[in-house]
Amino acid sequence: xxxxxxxxxxxxxxxxxxxxxxxxxxxxxxxxxxxxxxxxxxxxxxxxxxxxxxxxxxxxxxxxxxxxxxxxxxxxxxxxxxxxxxxxxxxxxxxxxxxxxxxxxxxxxxxxxxxxxxxxxxxxxxxxxxxxxxxxxxxxxxxxxxxxxxxxxxxxxxxxxxxxxxxxxxxxxxxxxxxx
Length: 180
Hints:
Order of helices and strands: HHHHHHHHH
Helix content: over 70%
CATH superfamily: Protein of unknown function DUF1465
CATH architecture: Orthogonal Bundle
CATH topology: Helicase, Ruva Protein, domain 3
Number of domains: 1
Low-confidence stretches: none
CATH class: Mainly Alpha
Structural class: mainly alpha
Number of strands: 0
Shape: elongated
């Protein structure tokens, strides 16, 4: 293979990469994302309503060890849902053009989607009110879905970074010309 064949192959690969349709960024802007967003925000609202209302009453009737577990689990549940909601809101802002992907990426360091389990041992968790256990389970599933989508988006971005704009390319050429 000669030198021109190598550069022709490289150009063909560059063209193929430029024409590749990335699945996960499309998914993030799709009806499936909108459904995930609605589910997430609905879970946040429903959980808050439970914790501020019936959950308070239920926690008062628990034995001391279960009441402490309830307080710990409700704090972890709230934190988990706020992290998921933050991620969903950032992604929606990108989808709607309110933030660039780079701006969202710089904000994303504040969102921790680390995998969590419930805050107490299984036997103590079983003593908690059924509604709290259900909200915890739903939040863990939602967090796993969002974390999966986040990893897939990050991998897609790493494999196919967004093309630089024409202005950025011109500045790079000017910088290179003045550097020499």
